[in-house]
Amino acid sequence: MSLLLALGASLAWGVADFAGPLKGRTLGALPVLLWAQAAGIVALAIAVAARGRAPHDPAVLLAIPAAVSGTLGIYSYYRGMATGTMSVVAPIAGASAIVPVIFGIATGDHPSAAQVAGIACALVGVVLASQEHQEGRRRLAAGVWLALLAAVGFGFYFPPMHAAGHADFWWASLIFRVTAGVTILAAVSVRRPPVRLGARDIAIVSAVGIGDTIGNVLFAASSAHGFVSLTAVLASLYRIVTIPLAPAVRRERVSLPQSVGIVLTLAGVVLI
User: CA–CA distance from 235 to each of 28, 147, 254, 267 (Å)?
Assistant: First the structure.
């Protein structure tokens, strides 16, 4: 069941993390994230109120650092997807799967040969995917640094959220969403972007927020029975959902070495 829940989180995140950055390209990352967080908070508040149970384990508060790290990751991901090629940024951000494996090793897990090979594949893939040729010269592709920052943010989301979800996944999800919402609101108050959206855009962005929230709840629920080094990596497979949508919808083209890098990165995540 924990594996199915983690894979369900991967599917929900994959769709949301394609549609969200796509709207972020035209509306801006912060307005999209603000409305998405608001929709997620409302949906979770209703679910938690209907459940009618108070949290009993202080470990649910670990959702707070998870939210700070995850918000850094999602904002960097949106910005990277806006400035770079989505087919390149997404798999690099998906290398976040390496972080929970390293965390698992540090806390007593023993990686298999396949996992070690997967980490190597992912790292080589990131290097290849991040390079592009222009006018006979090789340079770092646009959005790569933001994609790497997103990978770090997403990676450090998994261990504390896993622990919080093990305590109470409903309350952990709500605390995570409220903290993320407050963090985004603080960024909006500093940057002051226009946040008023039309009714159609609000509906789409709200659907993105609810999809992302479903992913958070499913991952937190999977934490009750699975190891973080397994459930987090399975949840990281959502890039496999995102990546095929980019060339299909946006008609993106990447070079042959970048294509090899994308495949290696995804293969690395699967091996891990």
Answer: 26, 18, 26, 15
Please identify which residue in the block is written with the tokens 């891990």: 272
- Tell me how far CA of residue 202 lies from CA of 36, 105, 206, 213, 248, in angstroms: 8, 42, 6, 16, 24
Q: Distance between CA atoms of 11 and 248, rounded to whole angstroms?
A: 18
Q: Count CA within 13 A, CB hemisphere, residue 3.
A: 1
Q: What are phi and psi of 139, to 5 degrees?
A: -145, 165
Upper half-sphere CA count for residue 107 (Cβ side, 13 Å): 11
Residues in the chain: 272
What does the alpha-carbon distance between residue 55 and residue 200 come to, in Å, rounded to a whole number? 36
Is residue 268 a contact partner of residue 125, using CB atoms and an 8 Å limit? yes
Kind and range of the H or E run holding 24: helix 2-27
Decide: residue 97, CB within 10 A, 0-12 exposed, 13-18 middle, 19+ buried: buried
Give SS3 for 54.
coil
**16 Cβ partners below 8 Å, 6+ apart?**
208, 209, 211, 212, 215
pTM of the model: 0.85
What phi, psi does 236 have (nearest 5°)? -70, -10
Task: Average pLDDT across each block of 10 residues of the chain; the chain has 272 residues. List them in order.
Answer: 83 88 92 96 95 92 96 93 81 80 77 82 76 65 86 91 91 96 96 93 95 91 74 74 69 75 80 78
